[in-house]
Amino acid sequence: MSEQYDVIVAGAGPAGAQCARDLATRGYDVVVLETESEDAFPTTSNKSTAGTFPSMITSFGVPDDVVMNFTDKVVLESPNNHYTRHHPGAVLEFADFKQWLVEDGREAGAEYRFDARVTGPVMENGQIAGVEYNGSEEVRAEITIDATGPSAPLAKALNVSKLERENHAIGIEYELTGVDLNHPDFGDLSDAMMLRLDHDLAPGGYSWIFHTGADEAKVGLCYIQNDSHRQNARDGFSVDDYMEYWLDRDPRFADAERKEGVQHRGSAHIQMPGDLSTDRFMAIGDTVPSIDPIWGEGIHKGMKSARAAAITVEAALDKGMTDTSAEQMSIYDRLWHRDVAPNQRRRLLMTELLYLADNDRYDRFMEDLHGMDEATMRKLNNGNPLAVANLLHFDDRALLTEFVRDKVAIDFDGFFPKPFNKRRSNASAAFEFD
């Protein structure tokens, strides 16, 4: 006999655990199904760089004891240049953070089942009525939420989110000791989160160094299966090969050593999503494609999507007047596009444009950044096309023409406003990251 709940959440990552935490606090009967064993949790899912900013810490009450290091600046690097912006942040111990979310949710009343691998939806009358896990066991609920990340077995079965392999991001990260964080050839990375744009190290992607305290750092890279990767990739190189290539050549790692047994791998879809919900169902967190694949702060966006899902559950199950129709569940879609990923299409287009640039353009971009004011950066991050137009060099025209032809299939003059052709601007096409 199947057990009945108000809500099933598949996946105990930040989005799933936060959603269960919110729902349990509101008094809903919620069960979370997690593939990993409780003793090992999280191991295979411990894959995030876990960089975040004060807005996330404050909004979700994250305790200081899951923070590895509080940072005070963000550094952007190109092959031969860098830019530093003073901006407070925090590097989380991701495993501790996830365990805190689980325990806090349990204290609020959420039930967790570990060693519970979701295998598919339980369907009744063409709608999802529950979840099958571990091959033959099942549990039922009024609403089911898929927070399993790119595997997304429920979302795929219900044709929600429409995840594709195109523009699929693949990443690896080590934790190192003995890192020279203030090498004279580079910007000072003490108490910093650094992002590097360099096709030699991560073609079609980026690499990073996040200071975690003393002489230690999280060091990783990610490439995206995009046109730029195909043009710049080294024959036969895997993501592991690129990582070793970087570690062997960067003098900041000359005396560095890897922490034994600490390696994180991850992947993400970088694309516009389809629908995010249907009858009795929502897809949250990494089950939805990434929003900002460079400085995405995916933890915060996953947590915000969890909160939007909890609000939708409350509207659907309010005071016993159950309405779990696709129309009612689409409240989540509207909240997601308004609060979690506003202007996502424009932001993704700008990010694709950035990846098309070559290494020389990245060096020039760092020079451009020194001339940007805070207001312009905020507009860029919000996907404002006028802000992009104002910050392009005239000789970027060939790059833009290629981008518009290949990516959006419209005429260049239809993509950016006419006045752009008559003025000279002083910065490049990319955006700042909050």
UniProtKB/TrEMBL annotation:
Keyword Oxidoreductase listed: yes
Chain ranges of the Digeranylgeranylglycerophospholipid reductase catalytic domain: 191-235
Superkingdom to which the source organism belongs: Archaea
Example of a GO biological process term: phospholipid biosynthetic process
Repeat found in the keyword field: no
Keywords (A to Z) from UniProt: FAD, Flavoprotein, Lipid biosynthesis, Lipid metabolism, Oxidoreductase, Phospholipid biosynthesis, Phospholipid metabolism
Transmembrane segments: none
One protein family per Pfam: FAD_oxidored
GO molecular function annotations of the record: oxidoreductase activity
Protein name: FAD dependent oxidoreductase
Species, as recorded: Halovivax asiaticus JCM 14624
